[in-house]
Design brief:
Elements lengths: L1 H10 L6 H21 L1 E3 L6 H14 L6 H30 L8 H10 L4 H9 L2 H11 L2 H14 L3 H24 L25 H7 L5 E3 L12 H12 L4 H20 L5 H38 L11
Parallel strand pairs: 1-2
Helix pairs in contact: 2-4, 2-9, 3-4, 4-8, 4-9, 7-12, 8-9, 8-11, 9-11, 9-13, 11-12, 11-13
Length: about 325
Amino acid sequence: ALRYRSAIIQSRRSPISRTGSFLTFGLLAVGIIASIATKFTLASIPNVLPLVVGILVLDALSQLVPQNRFVEAVQTFLHGLSYLVITILCAVLAAYAMQRFAFPLQDRLFAQADMALGLNWFDYAQWVDNHLAVQRLFHFAYDTIQVQIALPLVVLAFSNRPNELRGYLLAFAIALFVTIIISALMPAAGPVAFVDRATFHILQFTGATPLEHLTRLREAGPLILTDPPGGIATFPSFHATIAILTPLIMRSYPRILVSLLVLDAAMLGGTVTEGAHYFCDILAGGGIAFFAYALAKRIIRAEDRSSHHRSNEFISRPYPSSLADFG
């Protein structure tokens, strides 16, 4: 009986940690408060309600079929997917709303940091622009970010590794939260804002910070933005964070890891050109990935110890043998 009750507790454990939920609500709160303070409305943010309702319906239907590992994996995947979608949308709102505070642009600082590293963005971009095969590889790898965000969720959910999945979702939330805050406090237009795009024949910089959005966000007065949102963060690069975080999470799967290492090396190279990032943006994004991964592991261990302690207290609690025991 004790083992059965313990199994019930374990099976109902959510892939979303308490800290992860707190971070998502934190992003939402930051976005709402900043929007109210700056009289900003992001009218083009996607409506997530139909997706959430659809996921809840699928989850409810999955409860009606015989429960097995596959069904449990589907339920875990659905919970994780809803969490990722909601967290990302909250982050988009927070990122755009916080740019309204118009902190000083830090492009000079980032350009000087690249120079101190002995790296020249324009020379590198020109070299990539002159090598079509490299540019196509970089462009393809750069556009895989959504797939790489979803990959650990799919693999860990269907491999029955709930603790590792909780760690990934938490690490993702930590990295996204830190990125949004830093990019708002240290905004930048990106190096492509200071060069003539006509000098490039292949590169389109489709992932660069939308300069029109950045300019409008930094203007005083009420603003209703109806354009589709884009990646407004320059420093640090979230593409670089994902390029490091995903292989870290998937390192227990050698075949997947080898492919990821090749793909993410190209993503890091393309982040500089396709995303028009400074080299220091890449280093900062990678550093955040390691930080978020290490911090998430510590938090998950602490939450597990707390949960195990409460579970033991519950299991060791004696059953009432009669109605008198309730008194």
